[in-house]
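In the design runs reported in the main text, the only information available to the sequence generator was the tokenized backbone. The following block is the verbatim input for one such run; it is reproduced so that readers can re-run the procedure and compare outputs position by position.
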């Protein structure tokens, strides 16, 4: 759809939270999506999305709706939160938690390339 996607990283290495925000801000991105995998208790389950400012709320709801459908996991909703990357980026910004790696059933899904592809499309 004529979108240019810029990835903050292309491998499994750490970039500071400030580095992630700086990356998006310096490139004057239109939108910022921070994709995460949650961890808590083995019984924890589901997909959730966070935003900080009101100008990100509709974006968060729209992405979360599609992500929740794509995962088929319990819908934990959309919540306002003060996560660094959604506070320090200048554009509409969200942080998604796809599934719980601490939940063995969801961890198995995360290991499945087909599930990851569905999540990416969602």
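Verbatim output:
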């Amino acid at each position: 759809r004529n979108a240019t996607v810029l990835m903050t990283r292309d491998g499994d290495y750490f970039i500071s939270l400030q580095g992630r925000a700086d990356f998006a801000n310096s490139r004057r991105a239109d939108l910022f999506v921070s994709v995460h995998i949650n961890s808590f208790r083995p019984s924890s389950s589901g997909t959730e999305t966070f935003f900080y400012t009101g100008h990100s709320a509709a974006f968060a709801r729209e992405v979360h709706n599609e992500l929740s459908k794509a995962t088929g996991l319990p819908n934990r909703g959309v919540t306002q939160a003060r996560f660094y990357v959604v506070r320090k980026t200048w554009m509409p910004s969200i942080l998604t938690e796809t599934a719980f790696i601490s939940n063995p059933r969801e961890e198995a899904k995360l290991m499945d390339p087909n599930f990851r592809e569905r999540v990416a499309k969602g």
